[in-house]
Amino acid sequence: MQVTLKGQPLELKGNQPVTGEKAVNFSLVDLNDSTVELSDLLAKPLVISVVPDIDTSVCAIQTKRFNQEAASMEEINFVTISNNSKEQQSNWCAAEGVDMMMLRDTDLAFGKGYGLYIPEINHLARAIFVINQEGVVTYEEIVPEIAQEPDYTKAIEAAKTLI
Length: 163
Description:
Distance between the termini: 31 Å
CATH architecture: 3-Layer(aba) Sandwich
Number of domains: 1
Protein name: Lipid hydroperoxide peroxidase
Mean pLDDT: 97
Low-confidence stretches: none
Keywords: Antioxidant, Disulfide bond, Oxidoreductase, Peroxidase, Redox-active center
Number of helices: 4
GO molecular function, one term: thioredoxin peroxidase activity
Pfam families: Redoxin
Order of helices and strands: EEEEEHEHEHEEEEH
Organism: Vagococcus carniphilus
Strand order of the largest sheet: 4-3-7-6-5-10-11
């Protein structure tokens, strides 16, 4: 699959999850250095927001938007995943007042497992996945142009149908 970054084509490595498939398990570390696995998050419907670099404007907008949604919808789990370091994520969250769960994929295992790794820029593609309590992907969006925001409304609506 290809995406673009300001019009430049980039190739995603691997296979991307599609609606109706079982989500690939992952094991990532949060800001408290606790290991979090997919199964830990499935007590409620789950929205996974994937951003290429938390220190860029569109990623910041996306993360703040889902942080606002998370604060108003306790019946849904929200998580943001990037391959930024703990320090980058912590500093950004502190500066922006964001308290949602942030997971880091510094070894790119998640990115490769979900087919979101872009070798040319060593970052993840921008994506959103909604996963039900059985671990099945019920909504997926891999944003075709990395510099653009995802469709928040469609993702939130997809998650709400699982409540």
